[in-house]
Amino acid sequence: MNLHGTMRINQAGHLEIGGCDTVELARQFGTPLYVMDEALLRENCRAYVESFQKHYPNAEVIYASKVFSTMAMCRLVAEEGMGLDVVSGGELYTALASGFPANRIYFHGNNKSPEELEMALEARVGRYVVDNFSELDLLNELARQRKTKAKILIRVSPGIDAHTHHYIKTGMIDSKFGLAIANGQALMGAEKALGMKNLEFKGIHCHIGSQIFDLNSYKEAAATMMAFVKEIKTKTGYACEELNLGGGLGIYYTEGDSPQPIGELVALMTKTVREAATANNLPLPKIIVEPGRSIVGEAGVTLYTVGSVKDIPGIRKYVAVDGGMTDNPRPALYQAKYEAALANKMNVPGEETVSIAGKCCESGDMLIWDIELPPTVPGDILVVTSTGAYNYSMASNYNRNRRPAVVFACGGKAELVVRRESYEDLIRNDLVPERMQNKVACLA
C-alpha cells in the first residue's frame, strides 16, 4: 500500500493518519468510517493556489464540491482562498449554510431547475456555467423577473479525447454536457448570450474528463479553447474575459497510476494560454480551474471491520467487510481499482490472496478482487486508500444501510465533521397512510 500525506506506521504496527491511530479511530467512531487527512487537503489546495500565483496571478482556483461536499470542507476551501463549484441546489445550500461567500460560488449543471436557479439568484452567486440554449432562456427570464443580471460562462465541448473511462469523459462532441465547438452550436450560444439583456457573458468553460494523467490533453484543450476565444472575437467583437479550463487531474489509486505534479499542470496550461493570446493578439483572460479529485482523493481513506471470511478451496477466499457499494459504488460503476491493507497489521507481510466483499445483497458488491493480505480474521480493521473523492458524495442507503461518519484527522486529533446516520434517520421521511394505520385495504 502506498503511504502518502501524513500516513505512517506507528510502534504498535498500526496505520496512523494525521497523528491518529486508525485502529483507535475505528473503535471510537465505528466503521465504516471515512477519514480525511486535513493537512494533505490543505497542502493540495495550496499547491494549486501558489502555482497560479507564481505562473499566472490573474486566476482563480475553485473546488469542485461534487467530489466531497460537507460544511466543514466548504469552510476549509474558503480558508484556503479558493472559490467553490456547485452542481445542485443541495450543494449550493450546503455551501451557503457553511457561510461560504456567495460571490465566489460557480453554479454548474446540465439541467438546473427553475427552483435551483431562483435559489442561486436570491443568494447572488458569482457565476452561472450555462450548459445549453434552454438554460440561457430560462436564466435570462428569471433574472429579468428579479430585475438583475446574471454573470455567465458558457460550457462548451472542445472535442478532446482525454483517454479515460468513457463514463467520465465529458469533453467530446457527443456528450450530455455543453455546446460543441465543432458543429457551431457553441458560437451560436455565445452570440445568443451577448444579445440577452439580463445575462452578462463573461467567457467560456470546458471540462474534458476525470482521472487524466496525460498533460497533453490539457494543452490541447487550452489551445482549442483559445482558438474559440479568437473565433468569438472575430465573429462578435467580444473578447472573453474569463476562461475556465475545468479539472480532472488524475490521482494515485493503484500501482501503475502516474499522477502528474500540480505545478506542472499549471505551468503547461498558463504557457499555452499566454502563447495563444500573443499569437492571436488577444487580451489575457482570467484563468479558472476546478480541481476536485486531486485535492481530496488521496487525502481520504475508508476503515472497515472484517466480518465473515469464506474460503472456497481451490477457487477463492472472500473477506467480507461491514460496508461496500453503499459507501463506495465506484468499483461497481466504473470497475475502479483500489489498494488496501490491514490497519492493525501493517508490519505483517501478505501471505494470502483474498477478495474483499461488501455486505450488500448484490453479487457485484465487491470492493477489491485478488489482493495480498496478512492472515485475515474477523475483527481486523481493513483500510482502503484514496477514497476521498466520490465515495461519501455517492454513498447510499441501499439495503437500508446507514451512511458512515466522516472525521478530519490533524495534529493527533480527529474531529467529527459528519455524524453516522442512525436507524431513526433512515425512517425520518417515511409516512404510513392513515388507512393503513386503521388496517383498511386499498380497493381496486
TrEMBL record:
Coiled-coil intervals: none
Domain Orn/DAP/Arg decarboxylase 2 N-terminal, chain residue ranges per copy: 47-296
Pathway: Amino-acid biosynthesis; L-lysine biosynthesis via DAP pathway; L-lysine from DL-2,6-diaminopimelate: step 1/1
Binding site for pyridoxal 5'-phosphate: G248, E290, P291, G292, R293, Y390
SUPFAM superfamilies: Alanine racemase C-terminal domain-like (SSF50621), PLP-binding barrel (SSF51419)
PROSITE patterns: ODR_DC_2_2
EC number of the protein: 4.1.1.20
Annotated function: Specifically catalyzes the decarboxylation of meso-diaminopimelate (meso-DAP) to L-lysine.
Family statement drawn from the similarity comment of this UniProt entry: Belongs to the Orn/Lys/Arg decarboxylase class-II family. LysA subfamily.
Protein name per Swiss-Prot or TrEMBL: Diaminopimelate decarboxylase
Organism: Anaeroselena agilis
Upper lineage: Bacteria, Bacillati, Bacillota, Negativicutes, Acetonemataceae
Gene name of the encoded protein: lysA
